[in-house]
Amino acid sequence: MELSELFRSWEDDLVNEAVTELRHARLKHYIDDGEEVTRERVGKFIDRALECFSTRRAQPMVEHAEHIARERYAAGYDLFEVQTAINVIEEALWKRILSSVEPDELAHALGMVNAIFGMSKDVLARTYVSLTTNRETPRKELEEILDG
Predict the structure, then answer these.
(1) 8 A C-beta contact, residue 61 and residue 140
(2) pLDDT tens-digit profile of 105-137?
């Protein structure tokens, strides 16, 4: 089974695990938004990540991370809250990879996760900074890393 198909088969479990962990993290805005909204947002983020895995293109996540940053910044979220949410999703995926992926594919699988999630956190942080300083949002393309 291709990695992207394997990752897609975990999608519901990843959403459930991430939402549970976010509840335990007790992040103010995620508590205020409620579980249904959080579940929808986590699902959308995972879907974008899986799209990047299957197409080996960073653009879907770059656009989504910029959108998240603008939306959460406008709603008063701290950057810490949003970065924590992404970390929780990434951790859920890492756990599944480490327990399920064959050893000869581990480096590739973890490399893809690192590239996509690292890029998303970078874009998110850069967009937040640009919003706080009223500068143009810098874009960082990582397609070369995903192709490599």
Answers:
(1) no
(2) 999 999 999 999 999 999 999 999 999 887 554
At 46, list the tokens.
């995972």
Question: Tokens for 36?
Answer: 């249904």
Residue 108, judged by CB atoms within 10 A of its CB (0-12, 13-18, 19+), counts as: exposed
pTM for this structure? 0.84
Tell me how crowded residue 31 is: count the other CB atoms within 10 A of its CB. Answer: 13
**Residue whose entry in the numeric block shows the structure tokens 């890393």:** 145
Domains and CATH numbers, the chain: 3-147 (1.10.490.70)
| Sign, Cα dihedral of 74, 77, 83, 84 | negative
**Most distant CA atoms of the chain, gap in Å:** 46
Distance CA 102, CA 57 (A): 24
End-to-end CA distance of the chain: 20
Q: Is 58 helix (H, G, I), strand (E, B) or coil?
A: coil
Q: Are 128 and 73 in contact (CB under 8 A)?
A: yes
Say if residue 39 is exposed, middle or buried (CB neighbours under 10 Å; 0-12, 13-18, 19+).
middle
